[in-house]
């Protein structure tokens, strides 16, 4: 009886294992089939080459040539004499390129304008402060004079 029971248990375990393995095999086959169909779809997709005009090709070639031939020494030269600091100024000749990069020049000019405006504002503030000090001095002197007159009147009345 026990032998029969053990045989039945073994048979159940064997059938269960086979069922599990069959499910895993089916999943793997489904995944492989899905990957194969995706690859087939990608193979069917054909990318049409973009038609580029000859003018655009020439522009592209000129840009590539410009950046390939220009060295760092040609790009950045120049100095700011007022501050004594070096500033970058772009010096690419028109014969080398179709376009001119003016970013560096724009930044340098903007900083220079900002410094000039700050300098002017500072000068105006100094002048205003000087005028205000003179006004305060005059007002103080007038107060002293009025106080003197009042005290003199008071002394005369006594």
UniProtKB/TrEMBL annotation:
Domain of life: Eukaryota
InterPro entries per UniProt: CCDC43
Region (Disordered): 110-158
Comp. bias regions, Basic residues: 146-158
Compositionally biased region (Basic and acidic residues): 110-145
GO CC annotations on file: cytosol
Protein name in UniProt: Coiled-coil domain containing 43
Organism: Pelodiscus sinensis (Chinese softshell turtle)
């Amino acid at each position: 009886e026990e032998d029969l029971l053990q045989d039945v248990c073994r048979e159940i375990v064997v059938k269960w294992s086979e069922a599990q393995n069959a499910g895993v095999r089916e999943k793997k086959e489904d995944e492989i089939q899905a990957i194969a169909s995706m690859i087939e779809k990608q193979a069917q997709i054909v990318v049409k080459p973009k038609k580029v005009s000859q003018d655009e090709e020439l522009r592209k070639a000129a840009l590539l040539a410009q950046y390939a031939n220009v060295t760092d020494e040609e790009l950045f030269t120049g100095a700011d004499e007022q501050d004594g600091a070096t500033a970058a100024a772009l010096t690419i000749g028109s014969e080398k390129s179709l376009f001119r990069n003016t970013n560096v020049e724009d930044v340098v000019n903007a900083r220079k304008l900002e410094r000039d405006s700050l300098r002017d504002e500072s000068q105006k503030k100094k002048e205003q402060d000087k005028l205000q000090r003179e006004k305060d001095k005059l007002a103080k002197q007038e107060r002293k004079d009025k106080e003197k007159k009042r005290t003199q009147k008071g002394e005369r009345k006594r």
